[in-house]
Amino acid sequence: MMTTPEQPKVVRKKLFSPVWLLPIIALALGAWLGIKSIRESGIDVRVHFPSATGIDVSKTLVRYKGLNVGKVVDISIDDQLKGVNVDLVLDYRAGNLLKDSTKFWLVTPKATITGVEGLDALFSGNYIGMLPGDGDYRDHFEAERESPAIVPSEDGLVVELKADKLGSLDVGSPIFYRQIPVGNIVSYHLDEKHHIQLKGFVQHQYAHLVKQDSRFWNVSGVRVDASLAGIKVDTESIASILAGGVSFSSPDASKEAESEQLYQLYNNEKEAHGGASFLLTAKSADGIKIGTDVVFRDLPVGEVEELRLTEDGVAIHVRMDTPYSELIGGTAEFWTEGAQLSLSKISHPERLISGNVIRFSPGTGAAQTEYPLLSSAPELDGNPLKLTLHADNNPGAAVGAEIRYRNVTIGQVTGVNLAKDFSQVNVEVEIEAPFKNLVTQGSDFIVQPPVQVNASLDGIEIKGTDVGNLTKGRIDLRPGNGAALTADATLPIYESAEQAQLAQQQAQQLTWQLYSSSVAVNPGSDVYYKKMKIGQVAGVKWQAEQDQFAISLAIEHTYQSLLNERSIFWPTEALTIDGGLGGVNVAVAPLSGILKGGISLGLLDESASDNHLLYASKSLAERQSVPFTLQLPVNSAMKAGADIRYLGNSVGTIAQVHLADDLQSLRASAYIDGRFADQLLRSDSQYRIEDAELSLRGVKNATAVLTGPFISVTPGKQTTRADSFAVQAADDGIDNGNPLQLSLVRAELGSIKQGTGIFYRGILIGKVAQYQLADSGDHVVINAIIAERYRHLINASSRFFDLSGIKVDAGIFSGVQIDAGSVETILTGGIGVATEHPATAAEQLPQQFELADKPEEKWLSWSPTL
Amino acid sequence: MKPATKARGLDLGIYRCHVCGLLNDQHEQYCDRCHAKITPRDYRSLQSSWALLITAAILLVPANIYPITTLVKSGNVTHETIFSGILRLVHADLLPIAIIVFTASILVPWLKILGLGFYLSAITFKIPISKRKLTTGFHIIEWIGRWSMLDLFVISLSVALVNMGQLLDAQPAPAATAFALVILFTQLAAKTLDTRLLWDQLDKNDDNS
After folding, report:
1. Alpha-carbon distances of A490 from A431, A443, A487, A585, rounded to whole Å
2. Any idea where the Mce/MlaD domain is (chain A) (predicted)?
């Protein structure tokens, strides 16, 4: 078998096998890796930190948006020893992030109430955060103290919020949309106008929710409205309670917001959504506070946002809720309304706690920016009659008190205030339109107390009003004379019907002026005539120049006739006891007069000398007494009230006695009966002190025993009048003229005393003026005086003997001999004198007489004709 | 003529199929049994082996320079090269393991590349070396080379098992790829080489000697 050899196939040997591509590829790969590793070798950056705490070499990484971009390769202390230089090696790709404003900071795990920040750092350890900035390239930086606000990602929407205060907002506070957190507050700062400017970040997927007309408001904390109507708690989320938050709402028809658009951050949702806002002006805030509701048909449609003092009152900022903004028209009227609490009806009790509300009637026309705030609801059907009532004191009228006529409510009190000059109280009232005509000239108003208690001796009467008025009180209208009121007439308002009556009487009263230097009565005291009240003391004034009180009396008109020239006035004494030996007269004033004091009016039969003088007492008044003064010896026991008598008839009285400055005399203010003043106040009239004298011969001035000493007066003959007299002591006549003075000597004084009488045949002819122990001490010298007209009875032959006492000599055989002068001398003592013969021509009266203890019998038988 | 025992197929006109081992006539281009291409000597294998060896040598550089694993521990990322890993084991007083890893990861690849290089050089540059030594060495290289995959095996296990996110995570780093390629290419280089060339050369040398 032949096989034809095949033509050999010449295969050209390849110079290089394709397998050599492999090392080339490997080389290329290696080279690429090498070049890459050189390229990616990292960038050295030095960051200066205040402290290296929490930074570890080769452990602490640098992160940007969660990506490791480098790590710490070295830490060294800086040259100033003020911190550390941390050398970082950053990924080569981070090279373009390193600019002038690039920031580095240390992220450490931080747990706050709202969240844990840097939680990853708990596991990875602290790391250095990095935020790229703008500017030129640089590789050394100063570390930030705190992590800067990082806008989480470029994708979201950044909004700027302007607020007046930060509240509890903080970086990280959530931004809510319908209570879904859609973003965060990333930073805040004060702008140049000292507003807070916050930067918020809304996540990308929610960015479209923010519209150009969105409203942002603060939802920090909890808003609790607690009232009787219930408790309303507004809050977004627990986190926002604690950390604050911002919520927003957006109208549908609005364009999407631009980045970094500026919004106002409102304090609350109401404010944010608030519609029309306007100003109410009022005199006072009166129960209005921030948050007070503005209600319409009892539905809250707005609230008070701000209260502010203005020059003449209070400005109240009100913001209406958006849907209700249109309610307010140009003629809207606003008024406050609180809880109406009465025993008959309680309306809106929740306002007791929540405070007043502002109500309004919508009005028409274009809305204004400012409205007055009325204190009560305007009358909707016809204008009420506005009246000003006046009273001296607030009669107890309260705002809101009803005004009634025949117990039908016709109006109410709208205000109580002081008049501009503080002279009176003005009570503003409004009378409803249908009742306008009830108020006429002469009408007055009387406050009806809730409970009226009249207690008198007749019994106690308690009158109550209907319960509805217990709290506010009620005011009754009393119609007037029917004549229409003038434009700006004011009517009186009274505390009570009595006061009204009184006032009416006062209006018709007569005024009578009195003056008195010593007697003051209180205003309001009654004036009596025959114990019947006829008027009152209207006023008392002290007139310094005249040194007297000016008292004005208001006498009721009906007693006009009592005021005439015969009228006399004296203070009503509670109890007058006119006691004398003639009997005791006890006069009791009316009971009210006892308590309040008062003035009595009396009428004389003839014209009174002075019918404007208030006498000190009735008796003075009745006598038309004329005042004068007496000077009394200092030892006279004269007292106020002592009589001045003329021949036993009382013609005057002593009102006051006081010791003179020189202690030598007493000065007495005295009154003399007006009728006798002319005769008794003559310059030579004599005034003497009279005292009671008791003797067996009779009782002299017996009344003086009861009343004390009195003054007796002897009319003078001169025509000149005096108003001051010196009073002589009581006069026994012995001292008058030129009495004989002689001395008696005796071994001892016995019962002799000053004033002891000297008797001649039982007739008083003299008295003992004084006595003293002789210088030698062995006897007593008694100075006696003998009345002038009896001096001829005494001559050298006169013998003096003691009449005092009773001498009883009793013996068994002689019997009993009783010697006694007279009974009078037994009581008072006395000195007897007997004279033997008439005086011879040349005879001198001896210097001294001996006072014998008892008369010799012959002395008693002497009976010369002298 | 040489004794039969030392006869070569080439000399006898018999080519051995290197796929199925059937002895074919030298005129046959394709194996009767398996239809593989029949060549008396694959001279190109020398060149391929060289190329693969050089590739492996090149890749050995990044395999050692670059980190072979990226370990994230508590968020802290560490890169480990082969050598730093061994050092870490040494520092951790795990010397036996360190020796094993050192042998498998560094010694073996290097030895293999050097050894192969030596053999290829011996073939290419006809360096006279004892046949027995060569054969023994070659077997050792072939046998031990597979153990170099130990490192990669550990890495792949670690990557699969240690996967706890930021807390603890292991990731292969670029050097792992390079290292795997080194092992692959050295294996290929050893496998590709037509060892008969070695014997031819040695025989000649023996003849010459």
Report:
1. 13, 10, 9, 53
2. 42-133, 157-215, 279-363, 385-447, 626-716, 747-799
B19 shares contact with chain A (CB less than 8 Å):
no
Residues in A 794-853 with any Cβ partner in B closer than 8 A: none
User: With a cut of 0.90, is the ipTM above it?
Assistant: no
Percent of chain A with pLDDT over 70: 80
pLDDT tens per residue, range A198-242: 888 888 888 888 888 888 888 776 667 665 556 767 666 666 667
Q: Which of B27, B59, B84, B191 to mutate: most A Cβ within 10 Å?
A: B59
What are the tokens at A822?
Answer: 């007279």
The structural domains of chain A, with segments of one domain joined by +, span: 39-142, 157-273, 275-378, 509-621, 625-728, 740-861
Mean pLDDT of B2-20: 67
Question: Tokens standing for B59?
Answer: 């890749």
Note whether A20 contacts B: Cβ–Cβ < 8 A.
Answer: yes
pTM > 0.80: yes or no:
no
Q: How far is CA B53 from the centre of its chain?
A: 8
Residues 162-181 of B with CB under 8 A from A: 166-167, 174, 178, 181
Spelled out in words, what is the top-level CATH class assigned to the domain B41-208? mainly alpha
Mutate which: A9, A14, A19, A120, vs B, most B CBs within 10 A: A19
Q: What is the DSSP letter of B106?
A: I
Torsion (CA) A481, A485, A490, A491 in degrees, nearest 10: 20
pLDDT tens sequence across A774-826? 888 888 888 888 888 887 888 888 888 887 655 556 566 656 666 555 555 66
In contact, A444 and A475? CB cutoff 8 Å: no
Instruction: Show the DSSP H helices in chain B as ranges.
Output: 9-12, 43-65, 82-91, 95-102, 108-124, 131-145, 149-161, 174-192, 195-208
Sign of CA dihedral A850, A852, A856, A859: positive
User: In the prediction, which pLDDT does A1 show?
Assistant: 46
* Strongest mean pLDDT among A27-41, B21-35, B97-111: B97-111
The pLDDT value recorded for residue B192 is 79
Give the C-alpha distances (Å, rounded to integers) separating A769 from A689, A762, A780, A827, A855. 19, 19, 14, 19, 22
| pLDDT at A758 (0 to 100) | 84
- CA B141, distance to chain mean position in Å, is 7
Residue B209: pLDDT band with limits 50, 70, 90: very low
Q: Mutation test of the interface with chain B: which of A1, A32, A33, A35, choosing the one with the most B Cβ atoms within 10 A?
A: A33
Parts of chain B belonging to CATH 1.20.140: 41-208
What's the pLDDT at A342? 60
B77–A23 C-beta distance less than 8 A: no
List the single residue in A22, A33, A125 with the smallest CB-CB distance to B51: A22
**Residue contact A33–B52, C-beta within 8 A:** no
CATH class, B1-40 region: mainly beta
Minimal CA separation from A292 to chain B, in Å: 56
B59: nearest CA partner in chain A: A26
A54 in contact with chain B, both atoms CB, cutoff 8 A = no
Weakly modelled stretches of chain A, pLDDT under 50: 1, 114
* Closest alpha carbon within chain B to A16: B47
Q: Please indicate whether, in this complex, the C-beta atoms of A22 and B52 are within 8 angstroms of each other.
A: yes
Q: Where do you find CATH 2.30.30 in chain B?
A: 1-40
What pLDDT, on the 0 to 100 scale, is given for residue A256? 82
Is B47 within 8 Å of A20 when comparing Cβ atoms? Answer: yes
